[in-house]
Design a protein that fits this description.
Elements (H helix, E strand, L loop, with lengths): L5 E6 L3 E6 L4 H5 L1 H7 L3 H26 L4 H4 L11
Helix pairs in contact: 2-3
Length: 85
């Protein structure tokens, strides 16, 4: 059983707030959404562009792995009739 660890921060006007200590998977995957929610427009735009480029590149690599290396290797040659015999 995992024990969650929290850090408690004190703000003079907002009071205390407990923040979970550790890695946030949704925060990692959707970091541009977090930036937009915090009104960090430029950072959010850059993160969105970077994420889009990385996802597109990953899709191209996956597509290349799934595609046969050459057309001749993928399609067997059909038997061609020999004329004149």
């Amino acid at each position: 059983m995992a024990v969650n660890r929290f850090r408690v921060f004190h703000h003079p006007t907002r009071g205390n707030e407990a923040v979970k200590d550790g890695v946030s998977i949704p925060g990692f995957l959707f970091r541009f959404c977090w930036a937009f929610a915090k009104r960090r427009w430029v950072a959010g735009g850059l993160l969105f562009a970077l994420t889009s480029v990385l996802v597109e590149d990953a899709m191209r690599v996956r597509e290349r792995r799934l595609r046969p290396r050459s057309r001749a290797a993928a399609v067997p040659e059909a038997a061609t009739p020999v004329l004149g015999q």
